[in-house]
Known about the structure:
By secondary structure, this protein is mainly β. 8% of the residues lie in helices and 42% in strands. The mean pLDDT is 87.
Amino acid sequence: MANTTTSKAPTHEIFHVVGEDKTRWTKIGIGWEHGDSDGLNLIINYTPLVPGRIVVRKIKAQETEE
């Protein structure tokens, strides 16, 4: 089976977001883009118990260099 990731460093962060006006973003995991860019492998370290939404954001180049 072919390797589905292109990098060992995660390419995305996963957040639980609560609220509309004053939002609270909590990082709950990371993800790697597949080599063909058609999907993601996700590791979620925390499952939210309060209502909210899950947001997946690409990690910006500056953050990955640190």
